[in-house]
Specification:
The structure holds three protein chains of three kinds.
Chain A: H1 5-32, H2 36-57, H3 62-87, H4 91-113, H5 122-127, H6 147-150, H7 156-173, H8 175-183, H9 185-190, H10 195-234, H11 240-268, H12 277-295
Helix pairs in contact in A: 1-2, 1-7, 1-10, 1-11, 2-3, 2-4, 2-10, 3-4, 3-10, 7-10, 10-11, 10-12, 11-12
Chain B: H1 2-9, H2 15-40, H3 44-52, H4 54-67, H5 75-97, H6 103-128, H7 133-141, H8 149-178, H9 180-185, H10 190-207, H11 217-231, H12 235-259, H13 265-283, H14 289-302
Chain C: E1 12-23, E2 26-37, E3 41-45, H1 52-59, E4 67-72, E5 75-76, H2 77-80, E6 84-87, H3 101-107, H4 110-113, H5 121-133, H6 149-162, E7 167-171, H7 179-194, E8 198-202, H8 209-212, E9 215-219, E10 223-228, H9 229-232, H10 235-242
Parallel strand pairs in C: 3-8, 3-9, 6-7, 7-8
Antiparallel strand pairs in C: 1-2, 1-4, 4-5, 9-10
Helix pairs in contact in C: 3-6, 5-6, 6-7
Classes of the chains: A mainly alpha, B mainly alpha, C alpha/beta.
């Protein structure tokens, strides 16, 4: 790790880690609610949401982007429900139909409107562009204490830090009702827990996390961060607090190892380039899951009661 | 511009455009018919995971063919790689499903892990400068711009073979989808039928690589089936209708993208398919939204209000 | 304050009037009206698909009703919810959920705890006491997925008991449980009735209706009959709900 580590590797590393944490936390509850693919759907529909918000306002300011993503998530939820009701289709088909259609709509909007060129473009959605988030003002570790250099941090970084903190804090705040409603929604409703609101809040948090992750890994790889770390943790423990903790650990580890491997492994192999960090992070989180599915102490389904 | 679109629609925009339009229509036909069975058997998202899982195989096949001095973009070679990698994805999905994880999580994890590995390999290809990256990009969202005559012939033959197989297997497939337990009693090997259906689906994914792309192909499988289901309750009719809807969408989308080169083919086809679905959901007799609203209103009027 | 002697009329714990529930445009239960007196123990019986679970869920507002009004203890049911405990069907939840037995019982304390309320030693002891009542104290730290069906049902009932509710509504509490569990559950339910609380349960085993319940509500998409078990649970009446293929266990 030479002098270029701080300006070129550290910012993507931190951004990827924050995004992974923001996704993994709500991902735990999606997993237990058997809504893991709601995360899939939301990560796809973030794209049309961002594009539409940009086209309507001409701005890529975070609140605008967030509003667009939330609106798209809400629209997709309505669409899934409408398709399910009108066709009696299984939820999987309704979801698959909705998110592919909305993703296609997002791509069309981007290509036809000429909005490409801002950080919103199709390649970004497909590949992620972690490598582009660099900190040119930094000269070395000392820059972390230099206010002038810190001012030149990629703006995504402080935004993400804020979003990640908000997501984690909300989950902590709602822990008790969220747990009860996830285990038994009917019972939760009789306890005065606003289950629909809570469900919408979880969707909102997921959308927030997906917007955060979009700037790091793009649309499609967001699903890796939403699903893989919680799934890995689920195979390791039977305690919910421990599961959430382990999933955050897995998420951070995948982000850090993936970014470093993408940057340095090809060089170590004698290849003069780096590969996609977003792809490497997804592959790493999949590798963790593979290990847990093979050796995890809680990998087997319970046999006891049916 | 309207002229170019019209010309493309009536197969009058040149030999290549006609080829692309017919190829896409055949793909839509196959995907629609097979999608009706996929949806009935509730394998929609499994096929999405399978489609995404083709990417690392495609990239590796490209690398191998280029390293061997051949054309990295050879369609048959890419399809072979994609098929192997999709099979690996399905095996992995099956393994994950045997843990305590719910099936949807297993699907999401498989999809994203394989896609991530594929993206990683695509950047290797870009960096090695083994070819214009655009050549492989088209497998993600489809692009008929570079379609060759040979590709169109593979597409047509593939669709024909797939549809024949589907026709032969239609009875056991329907029985398996409706009630696997009963089907087994009747001597149907349901595990084999499930594998056959996945294989047919994989064929659609592979045929659709350059037309719709692997990210969106699932829409061309599901949407026509959902739309057709609104018009009919008979499985054979649903499958045929779905095929017709898929063919129409494929044809229109491909023709439009030939006329308007900025229009990516896959998203165009998907949006047209969705439009056909939405129209069906609105006006289909019995199950359409309009018919349902009328039925609800009748029920409300028929009920006495207040305690009885 | 000494008022006039109250008229000895049984108060109503739950009153349903004109309730209609539909899935899509198909009505599942139509214009159901029923009254459950305070301190009574009612079996809701009827054939499969009669709408028993649907009726109770709609009465609690868990699924939307097309028309109708539901009152509990004289208030709209939404306002009376703190006095009502609901025990869903065992199959309604995923028993692989990462939680221990005691965690589930403590969920019944949510109204008292809220978001941040501290789980005091007193409340912990309260939850343990409910488990003990059902003979499950030794299982407190067991993973819920490791329980048998009967044990799961007891945990569900313990969670409801922790609420200390005046009205307990159970959806098929005896479905798929062993005889020991059935005896333990019915003892606890009879205990609740002795304390003046009201119990309503969807029930399937017609042979145990007279022994377990003092009232029945016979349902088949509409109310067939409603009243004291001795007067209502008659072969001719039940036959109307079930369609004439019947057990001889039922009095003529």
């Amino acid at each position: 790790m030479g002098a270029e580590f701080v300006p070129l590797t550290l910012p993507p590393l931190v951004i990827a880690t924050l995004a992974a944490l923001a996704c993994a936390a709500p991902g735990n509850f999606l997993l237990l609610r058997r809504q893991a693919l709601l995360g899939d759907a939301i990560s796809h529909v973030v794209l049309p949401g961002l594009v539409a918000a940009f086209l309507l306002t001409g701005s890529t300011a975070p609140p605008v982007m967030l509003a667009g993503a939330l609106a798209a998530a809400a629209l997709s939820a309505l669409m899934i429900e409408a398709i399910r009701r009108s066709t009696n289709a299984d939820p999987g088909a309704a979801m698959g139909a909705t998110f592919t259609t909305m993703f296609a709509g997002g791509v069309l909007l981007l290509e036809l409107s000429g909005a490409s060129g801002t950080h919103l473009d199709v390649d970004h959605a497909l590949y992620g562009s972690l490598e582009a988030l660099i900190w040119l003002d930094a000269t070395g570790w000392s820059s972390l204490l230099d206010p002038a250099a810190l001012a030149g941090l990629p703006p995504e970084l402080p935004q993400l830090a804020l979003i990640t903190a908000a997501v984690l804090a909300t989950i902590a705040l709602l822990w008790r009702p969220l747990t009860i409603a996830t285990f038994d929604e009917g019972f939760a409703a009789t306890q005065g827990i606003p289950v629909r609101l809570l469900s919408a809040a979880l969707t909102g948090l997921t959308a927030l996390a997906a917007v955060a992750a979009f700037s790091a890994v793009g649309s499609i790889l967001t699903i890796a961060m939403l699903v893989c770390p919680p799934a890995t943790a689920r195979l390791l423990t039977d305690s919910l607090p421990r599961q959430v903790g382990l999933s955050l650990l897995c998420a951070a580890a995948a982000a850090i190892l993936g970014t470093l491997a993408a940057g340095y492994l090809p060089l170590a192999l004698g290849l003069p380039f780096a590969v996609s960090a977003a792809g490497a992070i997804a592959a790493t989180s999949g590798l963790f899951l593979a290990l847990a599915a093979t050796f995890g102490p809680r990998r087997h389904p319970l046999q006891g009661a049916a | 511009m309207l002229d170019t679109v019209l010309n493309a629609l009536i197969l009058n925009a040149g030999y290549n455009a006609a080829l692309v339009g017919i190829g896409a229509a055949l793909l839509g036909l196959a995907a629609g018919c097979i999608g009706a069975f996929v949806t009935l058997r509730r394998r929609a998202l499994t096929s999405d995971a399978m489609a995404h899982a083709t990417l690392p195989g495609i990239a590796l096949a490209f690398l191998v063919m280029a390293a061997a001095g051949g054309d990295g973009r050879n369609l048959a070679g890419l399809m072979l790689g994609a098929g192997l990698s999709a099979a690996l994805g399905l095996i992995w999905l099956d393994r994950l499903s045997r843990t305590r994880l719910p099936e949807d999580a297993a699907i999401g994890a498989t999809l994203s892990t394989f896609y991530g590995a594929g993206i990683l390999l695509l950047t290797v290809i870009q960096n090695l400068a083994l070819g214009r990256p655009a050549g492989l990009d088209s497998v993600l969202l489809g692009s008929t711009a570079g379609m060759l005559r040979g590709d169109a012939i593979i597409l047509a033959l593939g669709a024909a073979v797939t549809l024949c197989l589907l026709f032969i297997l239609r009875r056991p497939l329907i029985m398996t989808a409706f009630d696997p337990g009963h089907a087994r009693l009747m001597g149907v090997n349901t595990a084999l039928m499930d594998r056959a259906l996945l294989l047919l689906t994989l064929a659609c994914v592979l045929l659709g690589l350059h037309v719709v792309g692997l990210i969106l192909i699932v829409a061309l499988l599901i949407l026509p089936a959902l739309a057709a289901r609104l018009w009919s309750d008979r499985m054979e009719t649903v499958a045929l209708l779905a095929g017709a809807i898929g063919a129409l969408a494929g044809y229109l989308g491909a023709a439009l993208s030939v006329a308007l080169p900025d229009l990516p083919t896959g998203p165009a086809i998907v949006m047209i398919t969705f439009t056909l679905f939405a129209a069906s959901a609105l006006v289909a007799p019995g199950k359409g939204l309009l018919a349902q609203a009328a039925a609800r209103a009748r029920l409300r009027r028929a009920l006495p209000t207040g305690p009885n | 304050m000494a008022g006039p002697t109250p008229i000895p009329m049984p108060e109503t714990a739950l009153a349903i009037s004109g309730l209609t529930v539909a899935y899509g445009s198909v009505p599942v239960v139509a214009t159901v009206s029923a009254r459950f007196p305070k301190g009574s123990m009612t079996a809701v019986i009827g054939p499969n698909g009669a709408g028993k679970s649907t009726l109770l869920k709609a009465a609690l507002g868990l699924i939307p009703a097309v028309t109708g009004e539901v009152r509990a203890f004289g208030d709209p049911v939404a306002r009376a919810m703190p006095r009502i405990a609901y025990v869903p069907q065992r199959a309604a939840v995923d028993w692989e959920f990462p939680a221990r037995v005691i965690d589930v019982v403590q969920m019944g304390l949510y109204r008292r705890l809220g978001l941040f309320g501290r789980l005091t030693p007193g409340l912990r002891a309260q939850a343990m006491a409910q488990l003990d009542r059902l003979g499950m104290a030794d299982f407190a730290t067991r993973q819920i997925g490791a329980l048998s069906g009967g044990q799961q049902q007891r945990v569900f009932l313990a969670r409801a008991l922790a609420q200390e509710a005046d009205l307990v509504i159970l959806d098929e509490p005896f479905a798929g449980v062993d005889a020991a569990t059935e005896a333990a559950i019915i003892a606890v339910l009879h205990g609740l009735r002795a304390e003046g609380r009201t119990v309503i349960a969807v029930h399937h085993d017609l042979s145990t209706v007279p022994a377990y319940f003092d009232r029945v509500l016979l349902l088949n998409r509409r109310v067939i009959a409603e009243g004291a078990t001795a007067a209502t649970f008659r072969r001719a009446v039940v036959a109307e709900a079930y369609g004439h293929q019947l057990l001889t266990a039922i009095p003529a």
